[in-house]
Design a protein that fits this description.
Number of strands: 16
Mean pLDDT: 96
Low-confidence stretches: none
Shape: globular
Order of helices and strands: EHEEEEHEEEEHEEEEHEEEH
Distance between the termini: 45 Å
Radius of gyration: 18 Å
Length: about 300
Amino acid sequence: MEAIQHIHHISAIVGNPEENIKFYRDILNLKLIKKTVNYDDPSTYHLYFANNSVDNGTIITFFNWPNMHKGRIGNGQVERIAFRIPKGSLEAWAKHFETHQIETKVTQLFEAQTLEFEDTHGLPLALVEDDEAHDNQQAIIGFHGVTLLSLNPQKTVNTLTADMGMIKTNEDEDYLHVETQSAWRHHIIVKKQIANTNVRWGVGVVHHIAWSVPTDQAQLDWQSYMRNHGYHVTEVKDRSYFNAIYMKEHGGIIFEFATEGPGFTIDERFEQLGRQLVLPPQYEDRREELLLVLPQIRI
């Protein structure tokens, strides 16, 4: 069975949807590609963003809980999401954030210059330069990687390497470093120190990370493999734009395995992506009811 090649998407919980759009579309320059609802709670939005080409490996999604409490970062979650930017653009991005009064800090978290910051709702983010320059130096290329907070860091690394086929690249005093083997080379950092508290779902917290699998059959193979190796894996769930299975790895982090298709243009043309509210078929007959509950998006 082929190793997991890259991240498919990452989903986080944030607040007001208009504030969410202003930050990721207007400040981070990502493309809003889908306005829909949470399939498990259609009274809340589920917004999708990606790079301008809408490539797999670039998709970040948000559950908008504008009236919910602040989340607590802790064991059993992705802590920080890092995006990849063109080589030579870090200083320009730092100045860009300064004009928007966004506080930043330069570290070596991803074993390279890393610009750390938070979004409007307190979600931890970072930027790391690519090895190559690009025509648009203010573009987000896609994900660079994530940091993980685990109840059992060694077991989490074992899941990523022995079960999912990634490569351990380094270990230092604080972190275990793992990478995918594809061209994306997504950088996964597992923090060695176990936090004093576990995650509490709420605004400013990542909910899950999804790994890309190419086909429905590959997904079923992963479902069988993981079940046979001691993980509790869900049934296949139809998410319209991909099929999904979920599990908690042995450090308590929610992993999803998402198919690459059918993709985001099954219900909207590419040039129209993200402009209208698109409901899954099971909720279309409730459109008027849901529009009364969902906050207005006027931007």
